[in-house]
Design brief:
This protein is of the alpha/beta class and 430 residues long. The chain has helices spanning 53-69, 86-97, 114-118, 126-131, 140-146, 169-174, 186-198, 209-234, 242-255, 267-275, 289-294, 331-342, 344-354, 370-381, 396-410, 416-428; strands at 43-47, 74-77, 104-108, 155-156, 160-161, 164-168, 204-205, 281-283, 303-307, 314-318, 320-322, 383-386. It comes from Streptomyces hainanensis.
């Protein structure tokens, strides 16, 4: 099923099933799903993959706020470590199929939720947006991306920006490039990447397949612009068109500047190459800022963080969010958790620790780091579009097909024409 996104007033990123939110009473919903459960608000099992690092620190901070706001409800940590969330998602799917859901679980906001929705495993939480006064707290673009036919299936705890270009200031200066310069276009950036490559410097670090898809989405966004980029996901932009062909040529050129050991690395190693001065640039989401800051790097002195060339004025978003499963054992506990997740206090505590920014636009920038303040400013004024690589733009099966096609292309197993055809087929199949 295709959905429509519109810049500034986008129609939502999630297809829906006709489910309604039970009022914590254990009644069945309209689609016949059994919402029976404790409903007593005695505890809440929160299922996440936040088991280490800044993610665990953010969860701990959020739990502290939850315990202050809801002291009579016990928090049960259902975090599952491993595979950057893949282990948690596998276990979650097994539990949902066995009708043994947690009270709430973490998922990326947007089309990643489609499989759960189609399986009638999620309840509509849009009434909570009214109860918690969230419709004004979240920007209109985000609300539209979360909503379809008046229904919403998760509440975001944070927002990350995907279209960020990180650079090592020292490496650029040593090669005659102004680290404070910004690039109006990919061509301008490629000129400096050519110079770096000629000087024997790895111009652009990248890692395993998903990071290559991440790079691909930012190149598509840079060349197509927000409207046509959104059109890739709603069918109004032709994947076989000349403009997409040109963008894929730019992606091919960008990949020509990357490290040869990329397929054996994950994003932290690619980011570390920039921190260590073994590469000049890296395109990665803004969770990477924690790696720089934890190693004593200072924004504007040791490293820079700017929109990917050609994407200034656009915020390529992804968000962690929490759901209310059908059959949640303790719906009242889940509602209490969702209230804390959406609150100004909860979002501030969580995002200060995790390094992301609040989904709310009323947070105080003074509470956040220098980088987070720049992201908050962009988020509050720029056009918001959904990330491909991180669950916002397309369903899981479609993303997997796009990832497979990208891997075949970047490994040399497919030429550019075949790559474009495979991308078009991947989107058309869903």
């Amino acid at each position: 099923m295709r959905v429509t996104h519109k810049t500034g007033s986008m129609v939502a990123g999630v297809a829906v099933a006709a489910l309604t939110l039970g009022a914590c009473s254990g009644s069945s919903n309209d689609s016949g799903g059994d919402s029976s459960g404790g409903g007593a608000g005695e505890q809440v099992e929160v299922f996440t993959w936040w088991a280490a690092g800044s993610e665990k620190a953010g969860l701990d901070a959020l739990v502290n706020v939850f315990e202050e706001q809801h002291p009579d409800i016990e928090f049960v940590n259902g975090a599952v470590a491993g595979g950057a969330g893949s282990a948690a998602k596998d276990l979650l799917q097994s539990r949902l199929q066995a009708n043994d859901p947690p009270d709430t679980f973490q998922a990326h906001a947007g089309m990643e939720l489609l499989d759960y929705i189609n399986a009638a495993q999620l309840q509509d939480v849009s009434p909570l947006y009214d109860e918690f006064n969230l419709r004004e707290a979240f920007p209109a673009d985000l609300m539209d991306l979360l909503t379809h036919d008046g229904q919403i299936y998760s509440i975001p705890s944070n927002v990350h920006r995907a279209n960020v270009l990180w650079a090592n200031s020292g490496v650029l200066e040593e090669n005659g490039i102004d680290p404070n310069a910004t690039y109006a276009s990919l061509d301008d950036w490629f000129a400096d990447l050519d110079a770096l490559q000629e000087a024997g410097v790895t111009p652009l670090s990248v890692a395993t397949a998903w990071t290559q898809v991440h790079l691909l989405e930012t190149i598509l966004l840079a060349d197509l612009g927000a409207d046509a980029y959104n059109g890739l996901w709603d069918g109004s932009t032709d994947w076989e068109g000349a403009d997409v062909s040109a963008a894929l040529e730019d992606f091919e050129q960008a990949m020509s500047y990357t490290n040869t050991d990329r397929d054996g690395l994950d994003w932290p190693e690619a980011t570390q190459m920039v921190i260590d001065g073994n590469a000049a640039f890296n395109v990665m989401g803004d969770w990477a800022v924690a790696a720089f800051e934890e190693q004593g790097q200072e924004l504007g002195t040791d490293f820079t963080a700017n929109p990917v060339p050609g994407t200034d004025g656009v915020f390529d978003f992804l968000a962690d969010s929490f759901t209310l499963p059908v059959g949640a054992p303790d719906e009242e506990g889940a509602r209490a958790w969702l209230e804390t997740v959406s609150s100004a206090e909860g979002q501030t505590a969580f995002n200060v620790a995790k390094g992301s920014i609040p989904a709310r636009v009323d947070a105080d920038p003074a509470d956040f780091s220098a980088y987070q303040q720049t992201a908050m400013e962009s988020y509050g004024q720029d056009t918001i579009v959904p990330s491909l690589a991180h669950g916002a733009a397309v369903p899981v099966a479609e993303l997997n097909a796009i990832t497979d096609a990208t891997s075949r292309f970047t490994s040399g197993a497919a030429d550019l024409s075949t790559f474009q055809s495979e991308l078009a087929a991947a989107v058309a199949a869903s």
